[in-house]
Every structure is written in structure tokens, then in C-alpha cells.
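dumping this here before i forget
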Amino acid sequence: MALTGLEIFKLLPKTNCKKCGKPTCLAFAMQLAQKKAKLDDCPCASDEAKESLSAAAAPPMRQITFGTGETQVQAGQETVLFRHDEKFYSPTIIAVTVSDKLAGDELQKRIDTVSGLQFERVGCKIGVRAIAVVNDSGDADAFAAAAAKADESSDLALILCSDSADAMAAAVAKTAASKPLIASATADNAEAMAKIANDSKCPVVAKASSLKDLVDLTEKLAGLGVEDIVLSFEGMSLEQELRSLTEARVLSLKKVFRPLGYPTLSVVSEGDAAEQSASGIALACKYSGIVILDTVEPFALLPMLTAVMNVYSDPQKPIQVEPKMYEIGEPDENSPVIFTTNFSLTYYTVESDVEASRVPCYIIVVDTEGTSVLTAYSGDKLNEKAVADAITKLGVEDKVKHRKLIIPGYVAVMSGKLEEATGWEIMVGPRESSMLAKYLQEVWK
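structure:
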């Protein structure tokens, strides 16, 4: 929010009526500044105050969406420079190119390959979220045909890449219902691209070679009635682009400079697959909202998607798995029982190592609010009562005839109290999950 709590307070009626649910107008103003209250909660605010506060409360970076239905993606609406200050809201959209020089089976194969770049990591689905059709041919009809084919054959959001207004108009005419992202408007074609964007109600990319030129271009597009804009820099080295992206982010968020208050797009087309991946990761971190790559190599895309997942996860809300009993392999009444926490990375590490042992096993996942074993234990979220309650709630005693529980080696200190709380024999497992396979094969009996 652009205004401080005291600045907001000056615009409020100062009656301390408590109708907002807060004891004083100052308390409400402070909550509003911290985004913990809504302006509508104050029934006594004047229309003039509401207008001023609404303008000030508008996000410094506009949210842009393209695609429709389940394919819709969003970029922008970020509020901080650093994730630990709050969190990032719109994960970088990874897109892969399809050239309009391809046709027939080759075009279909490329579209299918791009659409199939989907993966699973720690129980979460990650993958390419947009397909970028590029007007490499320079021909409007070929571009429109390729765009229509991609729109028809892929479930991904669509980006149309051409500086030709004629080619763009032809492609948008066939794909407007899917709300593609129009890339790009430049100083030379701004009027024509703005008309296409306004007529189709699609967002448009503003592309320039410097920060100043980009400001001029976004102001021009805004003056032409375009509201949904994405920023892009052309002709820059990676170092220059990273610096420009950072400057734009600082100006939009810290100075609330509206001409740069939009998400950004970067194109990575140079270098081999590994080099594109490295550049893409750097751009996603600082601070590209959409990154278009040429490569379709899974080994290059998976690290980038993983980096995006890590950077854009909520630092205040760890990735979690459902707390329940998981069956690995086909366990029976004689199979070992292990427990771990519901921190996603911890669970999937343990699961992988148990699978590697080829010993069918039950894994009890205890709800520790998504924290790891040691973190949960130190915060008393993992204790003998939590484990005993999980055993009872999940009906573990009905699954096995033995009464042996393998616990993580790092919390061996729990063994005595846990034995008293459960009545089970406690077996202290290895400290490192990587040793579980050997432990299950050699120690479990």
C-alpha cells in the first residue's frame, strides 16, 4: 500500500465508532496499511476518502491473465522485492516456442512435445504452462494457421509472438476466444497492436530496448486505452536484462511508478539447452514473470521448473503431504512401521528410500504443520502424544500383528516416552534417510 497507517488515518472520519470491528480509527488505519482489513469495513468513510484510499490501495503491479478456463495463467500483482518480506504471488510462467515454419506432422509433434513437458515433484504438478507460437516465417497466413493449430491441439495458454500487426491480426482472429498474450507492441507498431488488443480484449507485451523507452511505450499504450500490459526488454545481454528487470521492479514497488507497474516477459533463445536453462533460472529469480525458451529438453526444463517452485513457495507455509498412513509396496501384517512428519520433502525422501529397500512398509505421517523432523521436535510439534494419537487415529494396530515402531534416529531421545505412551517396542532407525534401505534389509526382523 502506498500510504502509511497515519496517512490513512487522516482520511478516516476519526469517530472511533467501532463499526469496523476495531477499537479506534487509528487501529483500523494500521490494519488497513498492513492489508489485514478492507476499506469496505468502514461504513463512515466519505466518498472522497474512499476514492483516495482505493487509488492508494491498488496493487503497485497490475495482475495480468491470459488463457481461459483451466489453461488460464496469471502474472504480476507482486508486492515485495524479497520473498521473506511477505511472499511472491504469481509463479514465473514457463513457455516454450513453436515455430510457424513447421507444418503438418512436424508442427503437431512439436505442439505435443511442448504440451507433454509436465512433471511431478514432492507431490506437486509442475510443468510448462504456455505455448509460444513464433512468426519465424514472416507470413501472416502461416502464423495464423500455426496459432490456430496450437490453440486447438494444446491445453496450454497461448502466446503469439510477432512484430507484424498484419500477422498478429490474422492469428488473433482465429484464437481470440482463448485470450492469447499478444507479443509484441513496439514504438513502431503501438497503434496497430493497441487496436488489436482492445478489440480482442487480450493483454499485450510492450517491448523496448531501454527502461526509458519502455516507460514511453507503456504510457502510449495506456493512452490508447490498453490496460493489460506486460513489459519486455530486447537486444540486451543477460546481465543488462537482469539489471533492467530489477530496476523496473524497484521503481514499480518502492516508488509506485505506474508506467512500470506491470509483470515482465523474457525470451531465451541463445545457447544450448543447458545454457537456456541457466539463463531462465536467473531471469525467474530476478524478476521475470514469463520466460519463453526454445528448448524442449526435459533435463533443461525440470531444474528451471524446480527453481520456480522453490522461489515461489510460501515461506510461511511449507509444502505438506496429507497426514495419514501410506503403504509402500504391498505391506502385510508383518511389515515394518515407520513414522515421519508431513513436510513434503521429508516424506518423499523417506518414501524413495523405503522403495529402494524393496521391503514393503507402512509409513505413518504425523501432522507437524509441514515442518521437518528436527524442527518439529524442537518446536514440540513432534512428541510422544502426537505419534501415539496418530497410531490410534490411523488404526495401525489393526494393520500389523507386531508392535514395533521404527523412529528417525535424530529423535532417538523420544524412544523412552514414546514406548510408555504407545506400549510399542521402539526401534531407533538411522539418522539419515539414505541409510533406511540398508536398515530395513539388515536390521528389521
